User: What shape does this take?
Amino acid sequence: MPKNKIGECTICGQTSELTREHVIPKSFYGEVLPVKTKMITVGSCIACNQGASEDERKVRDLLGLEVMQYEHELTGYFDKKIKGNTNLGKSKVGKAFETQNRLKELGLVPSEELVLIENEVIQKVFKKMVRGLYFYFWHERLRNNCKIKTEKMKPVYEWYQLLEKIKSFPDHIIVVHGDNDEIFGCAGLRGPHPYQSQTRWFFSFYRKIIYITATEPEIYLPGPITDKIWL
Ligand SMILES: [Zn+2]
Assistant: This one.
């Protein structure tokens, strides 16, 4: 990674030597990466960058396993990636999936949802994405005293349906995507709050999996993310 100037880290706010961090993890895009100019990067300190890729790959495995249930065109790609990561002992989700498959083969009831396994990692990776996107679009850091929470949405909406819904909100709409809309989409809505840190972010992966991240100033008690106003 090329060395950059000294500055404020977008993620943690420390003044430090900065590296370029991909806001949307490269590993999320599948086989074909968007052209470089379409990939959003922000300045991040070495500490924040360290271990990030490993966490991102864990989340990628989780998304991949879900997408594979739909016989998506990226099924083969994910299968290969997840197996590789599992063999390296770096994917709890992949390991659980293997175990689940073995249980199925034995005719036993499969274990509970895999999603819970990496919840801490999911929260971490999404927090970083939201901090990066916030900075990229509004040229200021999301305040440190901000609560950031991510939840998976029930598969009620397809991405394009959700996007239509989002478009009906007049302000602060952002869409980020790869070369192909089918791979990745995201939208953020910033609330009118004076601290400018109340936002909703919609992340859609591979047209099937939707996560919602909300940020709230700490002094406000965050309400449920999936409230009726938004959905
Ligand atoms: Zn940092």
